[in-house]
Design a protein that fits this description.
Blueprint (H helix, E strand, L loop, with lengths): L9 H7 L6 E4 L3 E5 L7 E7 L6 H7 L1 H17 L7 E4 L15 E5 L9
Antiparallel strand pairs: 1-2, 2-3, 3-5, 4-5
Helix pairs in contact: 2-3
């Protein structure tokens, strides 16, 4: 069921404290932690505590929670001091787009030049 923790979800296990992560921010609704395979000097995953499989289902089922994810990503960009130079927030939705953990999450990337188009 949407919003409920999933026993087989890596991010649900991180939220529950069963899998370690380098947490940089935690609120009532969101957890943010450093990516274990960073693609930029700043690479933080921002995830809702409620389980939604992807960004589209999060936006449809809990738009206020989707807003929390985006707001906290911006706060982390300021905390990491990448907000002045620019940063990217990416949601991969579906395996064809590179999503490997099916719990909605935003990648906050910064600290280096980010080319366009991404690829």
């Amino acid at each position: 069921m949407a919003g409920e923790p999933q026993a087989d979800c890596l991010f649900c296990k991180i939220i529950a404290g069963h899998v370690p992560a380098t947490v940089v921010l935690e609120t009532e609704t969101v957890v943010a932690f450093r990516d274990i395979n960073p693609q930029a000097p700043t690479h933080v995953l921002v995830i809702p505590k409620a389980h939604y499989p992807d960004a589209a289902s999060l936006a449809a089922g809990a738009p206020e929670l989707a807003a929390d994810v985006l707001r906290e990503a911006g706060a982390i960009a300021a905390q990491e001091k990448v907000d002045d130079h620019g940063y990217r927030i990416v949601f991969n939705t579906g395996s064809g787009a590179g999503q490997t953990v099916f719990h909605a999450h935003a990648h906050l990337l910064g600290g280096r030049g980010l080319q366009w188009p991404p690829g």
